[in-house]
Amino acid sequence: MKTSTSILALATLASALPSQSVNKRACTSAVKLSGSENVFKSYTLHANSFYKAEVAEAVKNLSDKSLATAAAKVGNVGSFLWLDTIANIEKLKTELATDIPCKNILGLVIYDLPGRDCAAKASNGELAVGEINKYKTQYIDVIAGILKAHPNQAFALIIEPDSLPNLVTNIDETACQQSKSGYEEGVAYALKTLNLPNVVMYVDAGHGGWLGWNDNLKPGAEGLAKVYKAAGSPSQVRGISTNIAGWNAFDLTPGEFSKATDAQWNKAQNEKLYTELFGAALKTAGHPNHAIVDTGRNAVTGLRKEWGHWCNVKGAGFGVRPTSSTGAELVDAFVWGKPGGESDGTSDTSATRYDSFCGNDDAFKPSPEAGQWNQAYFEQLLKNAKPAF
Ligand code: BGC
């Protein structure tokens, strides 16, 4: 009697839990993706419930109510969900309990390496240099377990923005020297462990103004290839992500910084050129070279005083919506990597993670901590969107 009561109680509880709800639009058989095809030709980047909720809240708080209709549309744009802490793996579970249509691919950013963001401060993470075992067992293994438990769901992963590029150009900085072995071991572990049939992966390769310099192309490509090979050349790695949370135009000619005094040393003056030049270097180095490019906030050019400025660029606008029609052979899709409206870093000079780049003249102020919502910045992105909403 006692047993049957508790079973009944459990069953009632279970039916009330979202994780037990049945996704009526889910695929009915296992998804089989491969690094040898462009999955964005057959799948739509999913508009996740977290960005939807942020935008819905923003619509309520608009300072300019005439933007309401346009603002509401932003929530329907597909974007990547950032798993930026161990605790935020919960977001993935919550999202998987919603009705994701079979032909939608869920985009996730893997972003929690020990000593994260070694050359800057705004996105320093929760794991200290040396906490590689914690990264493996409490972060990557847990995510891999969830992805395995959802074989009928397709996933696209962006692997650790900025990490390997930092090892190429910022290795003179002590923090990056200390992070190096953890980044290489961590990214290789992520690629190996997340190499599942329902997953495709894009390893982050910075942008044209970073690894696009003549002297950086070869070491950059070799740096990525070394890690990819250490992971056993996983079949689900399709190539690279570029311009993540970035500002570069895709095919502006002449490029935004082509008149700079040092322009002769960089032929990757837009992201299309970058994917071609870096793509060729990757091929030589033995790394898959297809790309996805973040166009979330790149509508307006000519805003940055220097190419390397990365924090909450003032005057930016939402760019082209996610699509696999890129017109470029190596570019699988334009995606929204950074959820537009979330900050790149705080402008509060007294904060521990204050980075002077967020105090630059061309950075929007005030801005909250990285990842936090910035209502005024969202409204600016919307007003300057191209195409308009
Ligand atoms: C932050 C993350 C955040 C991501 C997306 C990064 O700059 O460090 O915490 O999730 O941006 O907004």
UniProtKB/TrEMBL annotation:
The active site is at D117, D162, D344. Gene3D superfamilies: 1, 4-beta cellobiohydrolase. GO terms for molecular function: hydrolase activity, hydrolyzing O-glycosyl compounds. The keyword Signal applies. Residues 1-16 form the signal peptide. PANTHER family: GLUCANASE, PTHR34876. This is Glucanase. It comes from Paraphaeosphaeria sporulosa. The lineage of its organism: Eukaryota, Fungi, Dikarya, Ascomycota, Pezizomycotina.
